[in-house]
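Tokens in:
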């Protein structure tokens, strides 16, 4: 038996309804703030992610599905959405539009990771990017919007952590200081942290090793090294969140797995998730567009995992499938089949939901089936005659086939 690849899943109809609800909530929350939908290709030139996400990140180092497209070009299934959206912003000259350009997406992404609950190899994200604004209101607005979305989806036990990474210059100086600190304490560090001191010292804050954590408690924090301008920007974001009544925890060790962040970074987690507690996060990436050969353009965004939001969500109001009409066919002659087929088709064109008997059941079986799918009316087409049955009252009347749709639309029998 052929099965779906490890770490992937089928979205079956019951689950599709919950995802549609999520999509409509995302559209409502984001379009109300002026974000417009964008869709980029499922794969991009590998270079986009190598340059955009950062060579030293876990994503680029070990999580990408990269392949040769047959023409000698290296392509990669998108592992995230920000670099592609920035590529599109540059490619389509969106800097000529009114700034910031506010975009959102709901797309699938691909990462070669060890599959577990809430961690898959193909997964979906809702993301939003505001490109072309350096104002702290932009950062705060994105955080508030994601909080609103999580709230609308009844995602449970949500916590928000925020921090600021400053500018790349501040980070370079800080990185030197941190690297020196780690080297001076390397005997107490776990092996993987020690091996990555030079590559990515910030990741040491993520370690779960007890002795490493002890060392990191005393480590210099980037938040204490911010320039005045960066500290002021962060202060403005915080007071906007305070005013909006959004609770957060200041986490000076918050590092995100993407290299492009500057200034504000944030992450929402949910206690309902267990080990993979990250629901969504984002931040400011003021140097990314430039890094991708665009003009220097400040920007900010977030991405939230669809599956994790759904895992942590309460019961969602899923729209019931309404069947206005089931067309049963009890006739022997081909004329009855034709009438039944046309009746179902005409009903749909008139705006009703209508299903036709397609399994060759007996009339009794057809009525049972119509009841099971919750049909409001059943039209029974026989040789030469048609009757309409109101499934609620049980009342059944013989009527011309052409009267069936008007009767249903009217909602009562013509007296
Ligand atoms: P994690 O720490 O769990 O690996 P991440 O930092 O790699 O998350 P981001 O790159 O910031 O995550 O992606 C944003 C969101 O996308 C995450 O908060 C999570 O909800 C979701 N996500 C990330 N990777 C996966 C995955 N492999 N499967 C399902 N959802 C994912
Ligand atoms: Mg990850």
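Residues out:
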């Amino acid at each position: 038996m052929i099965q779906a690849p490890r770490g992937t899943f089928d979205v079956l109809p019951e689950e599709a309804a919950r995802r549609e609800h999520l999509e409509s909530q995302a559209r409502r929350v984001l379009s109300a703030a002026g974000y417009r939908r964008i869709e980029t290709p499922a794969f991009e030139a590998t270079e986009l992610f190598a340059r955009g996400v950062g060579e030293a990140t876990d994503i680029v180092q070990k999580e990408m599905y990269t392949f040769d497209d047959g023409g000698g070009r290296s392509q990669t299934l998108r592992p995230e959405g920000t670099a592609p959206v920035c590529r599109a912003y540059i490619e389509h000259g969106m800097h000529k539009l009114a700034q910031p350009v506010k975009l959102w997406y709901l797309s699938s992404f691909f990462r070669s990771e060890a599959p577990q609950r809430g961690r898959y190899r193909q997964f979906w994200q809702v993301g939003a990017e505001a490109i072309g604004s350096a104002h702290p209101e932009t950062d705060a607005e994105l955080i508030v919007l994601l909080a609103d979305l999580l709230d609308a989806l009844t995602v449970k036990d949500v916590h928000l952590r925020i921090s600021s990474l400053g500018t790349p210059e501040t980070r370079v100086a800080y990185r030197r200081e941190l690297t020196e600190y780690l080297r001076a304490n390397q005997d107490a560090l776990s092996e993987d942290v020690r091996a990555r001191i030079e590559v990515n010292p910030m990741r040491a804050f993520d370690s779960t090793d007890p002795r490493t954590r002890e060392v990191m408690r005393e480590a210099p924090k980037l938040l204490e090294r911010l320039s005045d301008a960066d500290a002021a920007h962060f202060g403005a974001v915080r007071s906007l969140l305070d005013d909006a009544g959004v609770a957060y925890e200041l986490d000076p060790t918050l590092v995100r797995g993407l290299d492009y962040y500057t200034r504000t970074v944030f992450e929402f987690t949910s206690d309902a998730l267990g080990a993979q507690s990250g629901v969504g996060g984002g931040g400011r990436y003021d140097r990314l567009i430039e890094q991708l050969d665009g003009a220097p353009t400040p920007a900010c965004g977030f991405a939230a995992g669809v599956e994790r939001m759904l895992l942590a969500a309460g019961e969602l109001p899923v729209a019931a499938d309404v069947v206005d009409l089931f067309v049963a066919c009890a006739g022997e002659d081909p004329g009855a089949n034709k009438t039944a087929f046309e009746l179902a088709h005409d009903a749909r064109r008139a705006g009703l939901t209508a299903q036709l008997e397609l399994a060759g059941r007996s009339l009794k079986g057809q009525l049972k089936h119509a009841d099971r799918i919750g049909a409001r009316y059943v039209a029974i087409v026989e040789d030469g005659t048609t009757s309409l049955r109101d499934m609620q009252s049980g009342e059944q009347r013989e009527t011309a086939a052409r009267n069936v749709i008007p009767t249903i639309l009217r909602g009562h029998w013509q007296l």
